[in-house]
Specification:
It comes from Nonomuraea polychroma. The protein is 41% helix and 18% strand. The chain is of the alpha/beta class. Strand 22, helix 23 and strand 23 form a beta-alpha-beta unit.
Amino acid sequence: MPRLAIGPEFPRELSALAQPVRRDAVVALRRFLLNVSGAPHPERVRGARDPRVATLRLAAGHRGVVVRQRDVYWLRTVLPDPEAWSYAQRHRYGVNPVVGVVEEWDAEALERVEPALRRSGRRSSRLFDAICDGDLLALGLDGHAMPLFRLITTEADVAALEPLLPPTQHLPLAVLARGGSLAEAWRELDAWRYSDADTGPIDPDDLHAALRRSPDQAAFAPDKVTLDRVLGAPEWCTFPHPTQHRLARAARYEHPVLVIGGAGTGKTVIALHRAAHLAANGRGPVLLITFSQSLAEELSARLDVLIEDEVIRKRVEVDNAERLAMRIVAGAEGRRPALVGPGARSLAQLTDEALRLLSLTTGDLLDDVEPERKPYRHIVVDEAQDISAAQWRLLRAAAPRAYDDLFIVGDPHQRVTDTRVTLGAVGIPVVQHTLKVSYRLPQELLSFVVRLRGGGPVAGLVRGATEMYGYRATHNGERPMIRAYDSPESELAGLRATIESWLADGVPAGEIAVGARTTRLVRQAKKALEGLDVRAATFQHLKGLEFERVALIGVAEGVVPEPPPQEPGARARALQRERSILFVACTRARAMLYISHSGRGSPFIPL
């Protein structure tokens, strides 16, 4: 029976096909798995640069491209027949000899650029002349491509080669090209190792083992049920990036873990996968905690998609920090606190009282409980930067001090509250991991928001400051659009025209969001967009979400930032918080960001 591994491009391209073609392709793959009569069979590709590449006829006029080795088939893509044959001829495949992951090369394009590199090399000194072959090979660079790499003369050459090379080949070259050391290049490469425990010998001819080491490139589908899940699930469920996979699926952490990363680096994906892993393999109940109730509902819905087994899903409780505190206070008082009617307390009053009670009494009480009677065995925290000190003390007390007790993710640069907590000060010494690669934001948008946020340090979750430097994106895209209007009315008309053009481009309404700093502006936006089914919310309510395209309105002087207090310390904190709120809203976009204002623009908008 064939062993089928699906590549991440295949579900994306399958979903873009017409429904009859998509249906026929899925039926063909099910037959292929069962190896029954009428199943597609691999057809050799004339002129292929890799003899293992074949095609499968999946539907009328459409073929899948596979890399095969004995009974293992790695399904890369599905394309119309001429494009599929061209793709199959153009690419070759290998295994990185150092980290053992699979690699795809655009061999035809590399052959075309080699003459230009050779001509350039005659006129200039070559970039890597001072580094011996042995050192380059130790970074996992492909021996067959070494003559090509030796022709490189500038950092721009390396950047131009990026779309044609596997990332595990390009990243070490990019580090060396910008003057980085061999050790820095090694760290970039080592981030692609799928497991810290994976240190055994690597067989470059073993495709199956390499695919198992490449969770971002291959999802095995041994049966129809798994195949349908892989084809239908969101990409973040099925194809985690190697660093995400390694952090989320680690067998055991002896101490609390803190994962710090900028926008789009996959912190929430890691938190979700870690919660799922602990639910399936842990030693007791799991709590996934976040900053707000809306975020908790979003995380709960995403867990429902990630965890299919209902028994395992029920082991994970999702909540926000305030509701958790209120539930425990209700337990201490023996009744649910009244929010309306006689004796009612406002949410703010009730929250203050709950946090005071929890930090002074309940936390201590819980700490005296036997480990097996703690409410939770494992706690995963998302949006950690906005959790208060009192809430941290409760969380620390709600799980026993043992391995895999606390797993924390956050970004101090996205802090939207006045919270300033050092985890060590609340009894949570952590081992920190830092993420520097944004998978969501294109480089143009990432560069824009880094300038908007400012590169200065902010108070971190561990002692000292956290700085925003060294972040990079994995892809390029559109620059943010900044639009100035003469009046609020013309700005709202421009917003509607922009959203209508996006919908006309085929962007689903659910992939578009409109944000504003105030509820008044949100109401105006909703009125202007009447009849268009797109989300409109304040900047704060976009926190934790992501969309293909985002439009932010009213980003004007006097609105963003809101007028700050006069006291110098309070003023500085308020301005930093306002800048963070705008930063968070901007980073919700995956592909396109539109910012508008009437009158003078916000001083936060980078020139």
